[in-house]
Every structure is written in C-alpha cells, then in structure tokens.
Amino acid sequence: MYKSYLAASEFIDMTKIPGPKAASIVKEFKKIAYDSTFTYPLVIKTGSGCVIEDVDGNKFLDFTSNIGSCPLGYSHPEILGIIKDYCSTKNGVHKMAGQDFYCEEHIKIGKRLLSISKKNSKVFFINSGAEAVENAIKLAYKKIGPLPGVSCMGDFHGRTLGALSFTMSKKVQKTNFPELPVKRIKFCTADSDPQINQLESLLREHKVAFILTETIQGEGGLNVASKLFIQNIRKLADKFKVPLIFDEVQSGMGRTGKWWAYEHYGVEPDIMSVAKALQVGATVYDKEYEPDESGVLSSTWGGGDRIDMAVGTKIIEIIVNDGLLSNSQRIGNMLLKNFVDIIGIKGLIDVRGIGLMIGLEFDTKTVRDYVVNRLFKKGLLVLPAGIKSIRIMPPLIINEEEAAKGISLICDTINRYHK
User: Fold this and answer.
1) What is the CATH number of the domain that holds 123?
2) Which one of 74, 90, 110, 282 is separated from 9 by 20 to 30 angstroms, measured CA to CA?
3) Residue 19 belongs to a domain
4) Strand intervals (E) in 132-259
5) Residue 258 CB neighbour total at 10 angstroms
6) What pTM value is reported for the model?
C-alpha cells in the first residue's frame, strides 16, 4: 500500500482556487474566444522546476508537462540561457519562412534529432504534431498512391482534417467533418486479444497506402499496445510492402525511458511524427521515401522559429547529459508501483503505462472528473484522457520527493471520494 507523504496541513485550501485574478481572466477569455478543451480555470503566470505558479500566486505540482511539451519543467537555467541569447540584438530575425530560407538552427536540431532516430533517415521540419502527421501520410501517399490508410480505434493523430481522418478518440472531435479514406483496426493491448490478427485479413483484402498508429495512446486513454500487436504490424507492413508510420508526438523524446516508445517493442517505423517536447514539428523518414522533386512538402514557417529550434536542440542535449532517460524509467516505476497498489479502491479499475507516461482508469467518468478537479484544487495538475482515465506525465526532471507528493495527493484524493 502507498505511503502518505503529505500531512493534511500541506494540502492547498480549496477556497483559494481559482483566485480572483484567474477567475476574472477566464471570464474575459470566454467572452472573446472559443472555450475549447480547458479542464479547469488555471491561468499560468510562471514556473520553476516541476511547479507552475498561477496569476494569484498559487503553486501547483505539475504532472502534465503541458501534455509533454515541457519535458524539462520550467525555468531550466540552460533553456533560459538559450532564450536570453536569442532575445539579444545579434539575433534580430528570430522567426523566418523555414522552407524558403536556410539557417544554422535547422542543421543543429536536425543532426541532434537524427542522432537519436532510425539510421538512414532524413527529417522535414514543420510547426506542430498534426502537421508532422500530415506530412508523414503525404510521404506515404507519394510513394504508394492515394489509397486508404489504416489506423487504430482510439488513436489520436491531430485535428487538421487529414490527421483527423485517422483519429478515432472522441466523437466530438470528428462529427460532421469529412475524412480521407480509412480502414480501422482494433488497438490491441493484450497478446491474447482475439483481434490481434485483424490487420492481416484487412491487408489480404485491400490495398492500402500506409499503416499509422501510436504505440501508447495518449489522448485515447493511455492505452499501451501489446508487444505482439506492434511486432505483427511491423511484420505485416514488410510482407505487404506498406509503409509503417509511428506517431511519437506525445510519447517520444524520452518520455517512456527510451527516446521513442516504439523502442520498447524491438521494431522501427518507416516514417515517424515528432513534436511537443521537440518544440517544433518534425517528420522523420527513411531515405527511400524522399520525394524526387522539390515542393512536394512545404510549410509557411517550416519549423522556422529559430528560438524553438535552438531550445529543442538543447533539450535533447540535456536529456543525454543529465541521464533523464534513466530518471524517467526509475521515477516512472515508482509511480506505477504505488498506483497499482491501490487498484480496486473507490473506482480505480486499472493502471498502465511506461516510464513517465501513465494512465489511471476509473469505473466511471464521474469519478475521474471528480479526481481531476479535486487534485487541481489541492495543488496537483493532471489531465483527463479517453473516456474515464487520467493522464500522468510529469517533467522528466522530477525527483523522488516530488513523485511522492503526487502519489500522496492522488491516493488520498481517491480514498476520500464518496459515491
């Protein structure tokens, strides 16, 4: 059973959150902008380490990393140094049309990224995860032709219409939007799943342009694919000569204790989408998918924010130098073990994950939503995933003491729930 690391006196007073400044800003925002997927009224001011501070001075232990986009937490001195350099007058062109002009930052981040990626690859830089997926499928279409693509139930690949075609996470994300031709298979989380060979039957009956999947579904509920499922996909992609695309937008860059989640399965993709922790979007692809003419792929900015590219380069360097892959494994195992110990208490029905990418599933959405919002008011940030799961994704720099505080808050909150 988990150990309680926090005394009751250490919990934040619920009456203080949201504070008056945050409440006012949220109210004004809703008057002028679409209130999209906001989970709770957090208005961020600054942060340090694994802690975010809001505009009222309330501090929150962050178990979201802004959905993986802040892998080193906040106010990291080396990252602040990069930003300071680019704010000086010697770097007056911080943003450029990255597909029309060259800069050294492209070379530096490209070399760093390819040094941790599949050999014999090249990279195309864009602006976001959805664009990384868009260009991944474009490369496959260009090579194979405009045939249907294959994706998995529960996958999330982005909200632009091409990527959205292959997303199948929530109904609200897709209703009334058109989609590209797609074939869907079950995302199998157990080697014993009776539909583990569904893809083979599909490929025998249909010609397809590509297979696109996550290995750990993020938005879809932190579902971890079975090893046999992913290995079968790789074998079938080879057998039927279909390009395999792995979406590593959320799971990549060391989050699972390896650079890429697919490494836990002993396979490699032909094409990969990257973003979030990298700070820019990137499509990494085997050289055989290189278009034979210029202009096939393009983007207005093309990853052309020189500050973001410099920060992304430094992030990879810090993960290497500070041993953050092993820290992700070590702290992730600590979190996982403690959460597994309370399965069955107050509606917690499953815990799963790899490294610092962990999902807690409850028996109902009502319980899940209670836990998410109660934790926010107690000073811990987590986000929902899927229909009734919670996403645990702290910065890679998290230490044992911070992990213990999060464990205690989560376990105590679950225990205090009254159905």
Assistant:
1) 3.40.640.10
2) 74
3) no
4) 149-152, 182-185, 210-213, 216-217, 223-224, 244-247
5) 18
6) 0.94
